[in-house]
């Protein structure tokens, strides 16, 4: 089990193992952080203490988009060659491949506040998919903190 997060002090990317409680120190700014070993249910974020977490598929979005673009490009080429069966085979095959990937790939649990990604945890009923209104509330909170930090209105 691991967590990928940004340093609370400087924002540098970081990661930590969560098999046991450990002390973490940022390589960029030397900021110390004690990372608690979470319970398997992961009720709160171990980086910022926030209790609002959501689940998402633990799959790189760039790879998913690359597969989609490649399938569309190949289907356009085969459609231009008047190979309708091959075009449909590419499109349906890609949709089936996407469905299999969706079933095989596990979930990552993400904190709304600090955007820490927890890998290797089992999502529970407490971890719902991303809720846009909650995400927007935390986005506005981040913007207000940045304005206070820079002194701009």
Folded structure, characterized:
By secondary structure, the protein is an alpha+beta fold. It folds into 2 domains: 2-58 and 106-150, no CATH class; 61-103. Helices cover 39% and strands 22% of the residues. The chain is built from 3 helices and 8 strands, in the order βββββααβββα. The chain has helices at residues 61-80, 84-104, 132-150, and strands at 2-6, 13-17, 22-25, 32-35, 53-57, 107-111, 117-119, 128-129. The strands form 2 sheets. A 6-stranded mixed β-sheet has the order 2-1-7-6-5-8, with no helix packed on it. The protein has a two-stranded antiparallel sheet with strand order 3-4. Strand 1 and strand 2 (13-17) form a beta hairpin. It starts with a strand and ends with a helix. The relative contact order is 0.17.
Give a topology summary.
Elements: E1 2-6, E2 13-17, E3 22-25, E4 32-35, E5 53-57, H1 61-80, H2 84-104, E6 107-111, E7 117-119, E8 128-129, H3 132-150
Parallel strand pairs: 5-8
Antiparallel strand pairs: 1-2, 1-7, 3-4, 5-6, 6-7
Helix pairs in contact: 1-2
Task: Kindly list the characteristics that best describe this protein.
single chain; 6-stranded mixed sheet; about 150 residues; alpha+beta; 8 strands
Concise summary:
The chain is of the alpha+beta class.
Q: Please mark out the parts with pLDDT under 50 across 5 or more consecutive residues, or reply none.
A: none
Structural class: alpha+beta
Q: C-alpha Rg, in Å?
A: 20 Å
* Ends apart, CA distance between termini: 41 Å
Overall mean pLDDT stands at 90
Question: How many individual helices?
Answer: 3
Q: Into which percent range does the helicity of residues fall?
A: 25-40%
- Tell how many strands the DSSP assignment holds: 8
Broad shape: elongated
The helix/strand order is EEEEEHHEEEH
